[in-house]
């Protein structure tokens, strides 16, 4: 761990020790609720509706509490850039890749390479050193996540446009992670969320209007899915992710994404009754072993 990372870890709040498991549970559950919601709305329309709800909710809380605003103009720029990469780039490109025919398994397989790219780029962009043990853990995590994804779904026929948007989603979340690590500040969560989700809404709403008929079936299941994604996924999980990146090492935090496919498979089994193929179990064990190597503190 580099000296700046030691200082960040020392100043981290005590509750952050529980953040990885809570983030993993909320983020993985989001895929299950997203699957429920997409049965009642077009993908980008659903994403824009989700962002509109977040902006309305956070905007009301912001007007009521009036948190302190960043004094430096560059801080506003950094908040907007993280919103552009994570909320607009990652989610919009993921939804577009699904719309253009790429299977969910193929999208997950492409975007699960995020920790590897972060590990490669962290020394140059975030000043972090990724050791051999961490690299071994990252490779195990890739292998485990790939086994779970391949066991759960067919990759299908990849269209060039769908594969391109999946690659753009991968690059977007990598860029957002590294940008937050390098430029992130202690901005109040309400301010950060309001700026970042406003950027996401400004991108996703025009795309939905341009590419989709904007179909929405106002069923009870849609409201349940939307409520979970707004409160648990958009507000709590993303805030936890950015806090972990700010107070820790970007490569280690990104490695948590290796456990998303196995955790999602277990939650889908419990909630939706989806089966877990035999090949997925060794994949889960490999992912857990990789996470252990990456997250274990260095001497």
From TrEMBL:
One GO location term (cellular component): membrane
Parts of the chain that traverse the membrane: 12-34, 46-65, 135-155, 161-179, 191-211, 223-243, 255-273, 279-295
Keywords (A to Z) from UniProt: Membrane, Transmembrane, Transmembrane helix
All copies of domain EamA, residue ranges: 21-149, 162-295
Subcellular location: Membrane
Membrane topology term: Multi-pass membrane protein
InterPro entries according to UniProt: AA-Vitamin_Transporters, EamA_dom, EmrE-like
Family per record: Belongs to the EamA transporter family.
Protein name: EamA family transporter
Species the sequence originates in: Bordetella genomosp. 2
Lineage: Bacteria, Pseudomonadati, Pseudomonadota, Betaproteobacteria, Burkholderiales
């Amino acid at each position: 761990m580099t000296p700046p990372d030691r200082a960040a870890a020392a100043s981290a709040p005590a509750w952050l020790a529980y953040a990885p498991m809570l983030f993993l549970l909320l983020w993985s559950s989001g895929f299950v609720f997203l699957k429920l919601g997409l049965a009642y709305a077009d993908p980008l329309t659903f994403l824009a509706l989700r962002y509109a709800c977040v902006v309305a909710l956070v905007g009301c809380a912001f007007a009521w509490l009036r948190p302190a605003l960043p004094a430096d103009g560059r801080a506003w720029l950094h908040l907007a850039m993280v919103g552009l990469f994570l909320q607009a780039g990652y989610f919009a490109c993921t939804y577009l890749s699904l719309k253009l025919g790429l299977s969910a398994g193929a999208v997950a397989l492409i975007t699960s390479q995020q920790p590897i790219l972060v590990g490669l780029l962290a020394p140059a962009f975030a000043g972090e050193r990724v050791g051999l043990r961490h690299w071994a853990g990252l490779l195990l995590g890739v292998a485990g996540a790939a086994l779970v994804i391949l066991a759960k779904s067919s990759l299908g026929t990849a269209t060039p446009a769908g594969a391109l948007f999946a690659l753009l989603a991968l690059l977007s979340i990598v860029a957002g992670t590294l940008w937050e690590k390098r430029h992130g500040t202690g901005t109040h969560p309400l301010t950060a969320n309001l700026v970042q989700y406003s950027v996401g809404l400004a991108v996703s709403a025009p795309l939905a209007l341009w590419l989709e008929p904007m179909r929405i079936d106002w069923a009870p299941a849609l409201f349940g899915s939307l409520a979970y994604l707004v409160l648990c996924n958009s507000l709590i999980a993303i805030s936890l992710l950015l806090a972990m990146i700010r107070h820790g090492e970007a490569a280690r935090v990104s490695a948590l994404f290796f456990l998303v496919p196995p955790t999602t498979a277990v939650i889908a089994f419990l909630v939706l009754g989806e089966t877990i193929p035999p090949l997925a179990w060794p994949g889960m064990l490999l992912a857990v072993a990789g996470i252990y190597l990456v997250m274990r503190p260095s001497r």
